[in-house]
Inverse folding.
């Protein structure tokens, strides 16, 4: 029997993650039954759990996948850009991403074991944000009267607030000026300053 290529395995894994994202967003973690996961991915239980040990491992992989994508945007363009993309609907699947993000938040509150597993993964986004802010400070674009850790926490809180706002179905099309204010808050003020630190 021929061995399955790595490209095929990667494509199958991507298919499972994309289908599961929709399923978890629509039904929540508890409601995303194996049957619903099969329907959403178009694959059998055996195919799904060949790639992921169990439902929690699948959900963690999905949440981690989203965190990696966000960390990549943060490293290049800043956390405020992630928020702008959420508002614009420019991200690959904003509604499904929001659903996954909310489900992560719910499970962090109610499931200590999940909280412990997620803590290892969530550090990526914080690290990417902190490193970008440090680079911006080193370049002279970021205010230097507030610790980078504090600025990182500030931006992460704004992101969480935005996610909650959008998840409640509230309009986001008038929030561009709010994000401008957030960006202005972390920027160093001097004559001729430009750039996007957040």
């Amino acid at each position: 029997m021929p061995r399955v290529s790595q490209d095929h395995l990667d494509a199958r894994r991507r298919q499972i993650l994309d289908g599961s994202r929709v399923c978890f967003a629509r039904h929540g973690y508890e409601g995303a039954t194996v049957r619903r996961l099969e329907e959403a991915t178009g694959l059998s239980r055996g195919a799904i759990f060949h790639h992921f040990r169990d439902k929690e491992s699948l959900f963690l992989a999905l949440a981690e996948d989203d965190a990696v994508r966000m960390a990549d945007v943060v490293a290049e363009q800043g956390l405020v850009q992630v928020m702008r993309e959420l508002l614009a609907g420019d991200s690959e699947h904003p509604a499904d991403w929001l659903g996954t993000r909310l489900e992560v938040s719910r499970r962090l509150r109610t499931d200590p074991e999940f909280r412990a597993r997620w803590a290892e993964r969530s550090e990526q986004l914080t690290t990417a944000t902190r490193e970008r802010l440090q680079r911006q400070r080193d370049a002279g674009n970021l205010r230097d009267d507030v610790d980078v850790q504090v600025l990182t926490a500030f931006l992460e809180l704004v992101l969480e607030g935005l996610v909650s706002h959008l998840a409640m179905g509230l309009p986001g099309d008038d929030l561009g000026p709010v994000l401008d204010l957030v960006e202005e808050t972390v920027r160093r003020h001097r004559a001729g300053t430009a750039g996007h630190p957040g």
Notes: The CA atoms of residues 24 and 30 lie 8 Å apart. DSSP finds nine helices and no strands in the chain.
